[in-house]
Amino acid sequence: MSEEKQVYDESQIQVLEGLEAVRKRPGMYIGSTGPRGLHHLVYEIVDNAIDEALAGYCTEILVEILPGNVIRVSDNGRGIPTGIHPKEGISAATVVYTILHAGGKFGGGGYKVAGGLHGVGASVVNALSEWLELTVYDGHYIHFQRFERGHYQKEMEVIGDTEKTGTTVVFKADGEIFEDVVYDYDVLLTRMREQAFLNAGIKIIMSDLRNESEPVSEVLHYEGGIRSFVEYIHKKRGLETLHDEVIYLSKQEGDAFAEVAMQYNDSYNELILSFANNIHTVEGGTHELGFKNALTRVFNDYARRHNYLKDADKNLSGEDVREGLTAIISVKLTECQFEGQTKAKLGNTEVRPLVENIVTEKLTNYLEENPAVAREIFDKAVNAQRAREAARKAREMTRRKSALETARLPGKLADCSNRDNVNTEIYIVEGDSAGGSAKSGRDRRFQAILPLWGKMLNVEKARIDKVYGNEKLTPVVTALGCGIGDDLDIEKLRYGKIIIMADADVDGSHIRTLLLTFFFRYMRPVIEQGHVYLAQPPLFKVSRGKQFRYAFSDAERDKYIAELSGDNGAKVDVQRYKGLGEMDPEQLWETTMDPETRTMIKVEMEDAIRADETFTILMGDKVAPRKEFIEKNAKYVENLDI
């Protein structure tokens, strides 16, 4: 009997009306229906208020999380126009909230500079909300309209008189769309603080009113703009600066405005954050490229002119002059051209020469007027250059040594037989004892084991020349096979999964953190592309006779005790695993290594800036920021033997 063919004709073509397309495919508009997408709803509404500030009409924005995870955003801008739209025949405010690609940012003269260029923000938030209430104050009347999942029953109506102007939006994200509708106050606060820095003088008040007995609120108001941003980053991370003053460079050219704030610190890492019309360009773009090129050229020209670099000396590289640099680059343009729908990279070609000219002219003048600062930065760059040269020699030595040796892989590595780098995995295991159990218990076809003994180098406190040749890190680098730093080639990675397996105690957590710091600083693509995992060995074995359960938390242990003891309260044995080495190979396989039964955490990085900040705080030299971080986050830590 032949299968009946499915009909595919004109009746199969579906047309989604209005905002139904947004509800059908929300990820196309906000990226995901997870926490990132949920918080993005707030950003879209706040961005509209920010655009009013950029136009010169808004000075204060209130962002509140109300009980029930309802969001309220209020501004004192002009208020969305409420008159009847000539084409649609309904209030212009209703048009903005119900029709995609509708707004005042498409050349109608409403805004010279705007971040939300696609005109989908307000309507997308409306479509993805269980309900949304819009209140507009136009200086004479209060206009109100309520929407439910993007639809409205009543036209916008006047509900009172007023002398104030502005817009208030209250909405509740739709639980039918989002995986979770609980907002993270710290995530929103970070974004609001960023916006306050980027728009000097604007006041943003961020409040969490969900716990009525303990409301939380912070006023974000920075007259120093991006200069204050740089100072905040250094203070938050506990970094010592090389010079007291933040270097600030800016220029207006026609309708385009560019500004740069920069300051050097005593770390070995650079942090460059670039923005276009208040949107963080994570992947950089023409403005960031212009800054980097000009910075390198200015320092080399200055060093040659003042004879810091002799004729025979090599020029400083971009890496050298950016070591320990924190810089904020912000451009504001009439029309931003972003590469990709996520607006991650700026593509405007005219911005590169604008930023290059600012840095070349104004930074040169600054260095000439502040020779002591120039010398301090130059000395740091020269030390970075020497370290880079030492790293190059160590790298070449390693390559020559590897070429002469017959066994290129580390001696302690128990490799797998499969050479497919997609389906293979390597366990980096704490200690020889646990490594022995893992080697005996593994599936040799696709699982490799690399035991490590002792704690490795904290790369946060070391330049790259100290990384090469380090006896704890070299086996990891060699086993993975893809190189590190500028030499990293992710295509050469030998295993699809890199699994860190350490004891569930303080020492094990430290080893995991040291390894993650190394991967983040020198092999970041393995994290970004989802290759790094954390194994989750059990903490307890609960048994009664031949029955047993493995528990991964105190709560799970208590649950299994109650389950196995039964109504008659029979005796139950509880074994607490102090380390991986206490498990025999069969137990380790069954609980931690068998793909069918194991639990692992995939290491993901949603926000590289926050990750960078966290590694600096946790692994850097300064105690005070680390203590503050630990005290704030201790409530999230479970099952550690402290």
Features:
Rossmann fold; alpha+beta
What would you say this structure looks like, in words?
Helices cover 36% and strands 20% of the residues. It is globular. The longest helix has 34 residues, at 371-404. Strands 5-4-3-6-2-1-7-8 form an eight-stranded mixed beta sheet. Strands 9-10-13-11-12 form a five-stranded mixed beta sheet, with helices on both faces. Strands 17-16-18-19-23 form a five-stranded mixed beta sheet, with helices on both faces. α3 packs parallel to α6 (185-198) and α8 (286-305) runs parallel beside α10 (351-369). The protein is of the alpha+beta class and 642 residues long. The model is unreliable at 7-16, 104-110 and 402-407 (pLDDT under 50). The chain folds into four domains: 20-221, Heat Shock Protein 90; 226-388, 2-Layer Sandwich (Ribosomal Protein S5, domain 2), CATH 3.30.230; 408-537 and 601-636, Rossmann fold; 540-576, no CATH class.
